[in-house]
Amino acid sequence: MGLPVRKVGVVLTAWLLLAAAPARQLPPVDAAIAIAVNGDELPRDPAPRIVGKGGGRLVVPVVRIYSALGIAVSRRGDTITASAPGKTVVLRIGSASATIDGRPVTMDAPALSIGGATYVPLRFVAEALGAQATFNARANRVEIVSSLVGRTPALEQRAAGGAAQIVGSVSAIDLNSAPPSLTVVRGPSVRTIAITSTAAIALQDVVARTSAAGTLNDVHVGDAVSAVVLADGRVASVIVRYASRIGTIAAISGSQFVLDGGFIMSPDPATTISLNGDPAAFSDLRVGDAVVVRLNPDTNEKRQIIAARAVAATPGPVGPVAISSFTLEAPRALRSGEAYDVVLRGTPGGRASFDIGTYLTGLPLPETVPGIYAAHDVVPPDVNFGPTPVYGHLSAAGTDAPRAEAATLLAVSNAPPQIVDIAPLGGQTVNNNRPSIYATFRVPTGVGIDPASATIVVNGADVTLSATRTDQFVLYSPSIALADGPVSVQVRIADAAGNVQTRSWSFTVRAR
């Protein structure tokens, strides 16, 4: 068995090639499976994938296919409903059960969420749409031909009790109106809704699979939104959904960059870019920058690139109001409920605050003694973000000091790392009594895995010291032949924030 790098190997190989190549060169993306709907090739992010044991099963990004056919799609939690003239398809992530026009059907495999996109077996797409769906392995291409074409999706859908559900994408946020408002678009339709203090706002990152209460300050243009408007016009609830891709730029060209996790990013015309909190151009980004790409999970539009570059703070007296120093103290990446300290020194008698990137802003810094503003804060629940710059602000007598940046980045993760690919597979029988035993890792947030935390136990014996451990995989190659029979494996890992994940499986050796 070769190196344990199906996913990891692609990433590492691409990275090494990039390191040796000029910065303008990027790895080819042709390895992704192409997909065409009614003759029109779709973008390959998300692309069809081969998943599962053995030769695997082909799964395709179903929401992207529906959108290409103009079929309206709505999502509530893990349930996805597609509506076209004379056709309604309902499926649930994690389940193989679905309905087509109310008729129950069973898919070949459960619907999956991969990188924020929903995947289903290709055969189900053909059945649900009455379409011709084929995969040409030689051409590495999926072709879908369907006569079912939807209408322009409706922005507003009627709900029970005279309420309405507004489904679309955020096109504008007005925090200065009274009450503040949100503008939602879907196709040619536009609707502006007032958000009062009684409206419950939930923020969902479909990649990190987190949900947290929020405010309009946390909503970004381009996010997917579903709002329930009551019969009297009040907004009862707003669910805001986005997909985040977090990592460090490993290589960059004039129009693309590659994150260290292998994600290839090409900005859309509407993508906005910020670097350390300030507007920036794509050409301002550099290898080594920490990046959060915020996508709309329904349309896959890449609306924001939030980049951070660690720089030494350059405080000093500038004018009558100044910040002389600004520091962040956090022992490591944190989890909800853990504390960190922020201290700003500057002109006394002012008002100070700090921002953690664009995630948490306007956090107060009380003046504890003249000229020293300090806070011992606790990370709120259900917050996740990769290494992010922290900025300090100070104003006094109506004058603002130049913003200061802490030299330390802050990262927060409450989502445990994932043990993705394993070998030999669970339940598999191998005829090699010295098989390579491995597991590959993935982090849903930007908080990396601590290689020293990885342990591997085979047949009850801890073989960690004989294994190769990295932040992306663990590999154990037995030095002594394993006896014929069942072999149990347990792998345990932890990320830099201390979130732990364990996976156990077994396979069988039959060498004689």
Could you characterize the architecture of this molecule?
By secondary structure, this protein is mainly beta. The chain folds into 4 domains: 32-145, Copper Amine Oxidase, Chain A, domain 1 (2-Layer Sandwich); 156-242, Beta Barrel (OB fold (Dihydrolipoamide Acetyltransferase, E2P)), CATH 2.40.50; 323-412, Immunoglobulins (Immunoglobulin-like, Sandwich); 418-509, Sandwich (Immunoglobulin-like), CATH 2.60.40. The strands form 9 sheets. Strands 14, 15, 16, 17, 18, 19, 20, 21, 22, 23, 24, 25, 26 and 27 form a 14-stranded mixed β-sheet that branches. A hairpin with a 4-residue loop joins strand 12 and strand 13. Mean pLDDT is 82; it is low at 1-30 and 313-318.
